[in-house]
Amino acid sequence: MSIHPDLQQHYVRACQNAGQPENPFIAHVLQEADKNDKTRWTKGITLKIAGNNHLVPVQRVTDDDLQVLASVLHSTVFVTGLDLRCNVLTDAGAEHMATFLQENSTLRYLNLMFNDIGTSGAELIARALHRNETLVYLRMTGNKTGNKGGMFFASMLQMNSTLEKLDLGDCDMGTQCLIAIATALTQNKSVKAINLNRPLLYSQEEETTVHVALMLKNNSSLVELHLCKHEMKNFGVERLCEALYENSSLRYLDISCNKITCDGIKFLAELLKQNQTLEILDLNANRIEDDGAIYLSEALALNNRSLQALSVVSNNISGKGLVALSDAMKTNMELSYIYIWGNKFDEATCIAFSELIQTGRLKTNCTDVEPYEVDGHLHLAELSHGLKKHYYWTPSCGEVANKDANACLAIAAVSEY
Questions:
Q1: Of 89, 184, 197, 218, which is least packed with CB atoms within 10 Å of its CB?
Q2: Measured between alpha carbons, how far is 93 from 121 in angstroms, rounded to an integer?
Q3: The CATH number of the domain where 115 resides is what?
Q4: Residue 197 pairs with which residues in a beta bridge?
Q5: What was the pLDDT predicted at 5?
Q6: Same domain flag for 232 and 361
Q7: Are 115 and 87 in contact (CB under 8 A)?
Q8: How many structural domains compose the chain?
Q9: Which are the contacts of 71, defined by CB distance < 8 A and separation ≥ 6?
Q10: In terms of residue numbers, what domain contains 228?
Q11: Does 355 map to a domain?
Q12: Mean per-residue pLDDT for 304-308?
């Protein structure tokens, strides 16, 4: 085999040897990779075999397809990323991937989001990562691994010292699993970012948030934490804030889609007066209202100079609170990204944010609104920007040109590659 083998030809031969029909989409992706400038291969390439690609005909990847593909990539050192999102891989496919992970020493990025991998598949992949010392970023998003499957990842975090970013959002995890993961992260020193969005919780006691808070008191490596849809209330926010007084590493906190009111935001505002580490705060789809927005604006205007991005989308805030936030941006030059759509805009709000944009204080690629005028009155139109613009999807036509509105902004430690 040459240093840069012809991937497509290798794939055709592997299909013939296995008596397996070729998947034309895999063949197309490998052919495109072969056309690339081979000098790029020294840095590693990511094969994007996503089943939701709308630009070319897609035949979704099956378990048998993956088995052949894994044999092709087995000794291919320049493939460092593999995007298999939105295909039809099951636990059998997870077994092929687990075998590959145990034998491969170059893959750094693996995206398996929205396949049909269940509990046993999660176990196989998690166990493979006990020994794998290469993979840095794993996305299991949307696979119904359940509470038991999540427990295997919790065990893996006690053994693995390489993985930096783990996405277990929308995986139907439960209370036991979340507590186990939080406990594992008190000792794990390698994970920089974790997504625990939308677990299935049946208690109102917020035990999981309490354990996450205890973890934050002891963890000094976690940079990014997603706790969206955790049924979190003001009590939980208070526990997190208590922990973050002692934490100096967390830079991105996502507590969107919870049940936080202005009373919970009061604790957060007090934290922001002293915390100089948080850079991104996502409060999207809570209910902080005007009082909560004013608490935040006071902290940001007078004390905090570290927060760079704030989302208060859909929080039942009216003009009084929104104008207060716009005023805070006039004195706080560090706050560069603000997302406000879904609140109650009045004329004062439209004028305030129009002035920020027209003076150049707020760039249009750093917010989700744009001013326009009708009959002498200013209004705000929605722009499709936000902190998680490319969480569930990425543009099919090439790379993301503008990373300002993407989930990780400038946090390079947890980038895709």
A1: 218
A2: 8
A3: 3.80.10.10
A4: none
A5: 64
A6: yes
A7: yes
A8: 2
A9: 14, 18
A10: 212-416
A11: yes
A12: 95
